[in-house]
Amino acid sequence: MLLRRYFVLLLSGLMFFSSSLWAAVNQEKIVVFAASSMTYPLNRLAKIYNAEHGTNVVVSLGSSSTMARQIERGAPADIFISANQMWMDHLLKAKSFKDAKPVVVAQNELVLITQMDRVMKPFLINDQTALAKVIGQGRLVMGDPSHVPQGQYAKTLLESLGLWQQVQSKIVPAANARNALMMVERGQAAFGVAYFSDAASSDKVKVIGRFPPAKQPQIDYQMIALNQRPDVLAFYQFLLSDKAKPVWMRFGFKMED
Question: Would you say 202 and 185 are in contact if contact means Cβ atoms under 8 Å apart?
Answer without folding.
Answer: yes
